[in-house]
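TEACHING EXERCISE
Course module: macromolecular assemblies
Task: Read the component lines below, then compare them to the predicted structure of the full complex.
Student: A.B.
Group: 4
Components provided:
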Amino acid sequence: MQLTGDNLTCQRGGRTVFSGLYFSLSGGEAMMVVGRNGAGKSSLLRMIAGLICISAGRLDLSGGEADATLAEQAHYLGHQDALKPSLSVIENLRFWADFLGAAGATLEPALAAVDLTPLAYMPAAYLSAGQKRRLSIARLIAAKRPLWLLDEPTSALDVQSQDRLAGLMRSHLAGGGMIMAATHGPIGLENARELRVGPE
Amino acid sequence: MSAFTSLLLRDMRIAVRVGGGALMGALFFLIVVTMMPFAIGPDLGLLARIGPAILWLGALLASLLALDRLFANDLDDGSLDLLMMGSMPLELAVAAKAIAHWLTTCLPLVVITPVLGLMLNVEMHAMGWVSLTLLAGTPALTFIGLIGAALSVTLRRGGLLLAVLVLPLTVPVLIFGVAAANAAIVGPAPFGPPFTILCALSLASFVLGPVAAAAALRHGLE
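Instructor-supplied answer key:
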């Protein structure tokens, strides 16, 4: 399984954010997207997720499911947690698991993986920022998709949760998954390659 | 559970919980209809004559009331991004949201209409007909409004724009809805033709609304 970006260009609001970007990512590999504020790290991830259109160049995923689009094989963890405050933790997770193609999956392992089992029946409105973050990470565990697109995944997470996330990422990579993470600091993956967007 | 039903049930659950908008429409409808006799005066004959039109107008405005939050909430918390990444086509996801909105906002309107008709001196048997026309016509209001909600989703305070965009398109629904109700109550025109057109408007918007709304969402998110 391989994801390649070929001469990608991104334009937002008439301004060229980045252009001529090449990368390739194979199964089991992680890539850190680095760059200054506004260099287009988030735009690149949203582009791969199919949320903004590609101004020029092409994106290819080979070796995945033939009839699924790139966006359908990717998980996107953005700055927002996509949680409904009036639904409980387990209801939020159940919905995203069902919607993202893991209907009827058991959710207990996913909740345990982010240490939210005791809060399963609490409305999401009462969660702290870090707990909300962990709940949206549980979504990646509950529904299996090969490509993880993580935008600042460690924001709001405490040290233990960052370690736990690193463990989850390692086991995802060990299972042949791919990770692309936009980040300003280390997120606990030792042999991740670096993709620089924009000027040094 | 399939993605469609899970989205439908999620939206209904959110609507009926704290902070959801399920009863807002019904309460607004109640207030509008209750104020009407105070404004028009105690002329019972006049009230009975214009009662169906008032009920239809109240239902139209009430059904638009919560519509501007239909996609805006999902945009604000990032859910809309993920809805676009599901394996279900966006058109179906949008349709599921609209059906949930109709069930939680418009169906209560239809249900309380007979009670409100009492305040307008509309007779009991006539109320059945008005409710029937509302049942047939409100899906058109929801699915036309859906397009406006998708178009105005990225705008702050898009509610007014939504009303300006959507209300002109709902004029045919209003005309044939009130025409069908009046035909059933006082005649002499037959009930069939306007009611059939009302059903046709609902069915057509049921097909076109989600497609147009999904296209608007895809375009608006860039």
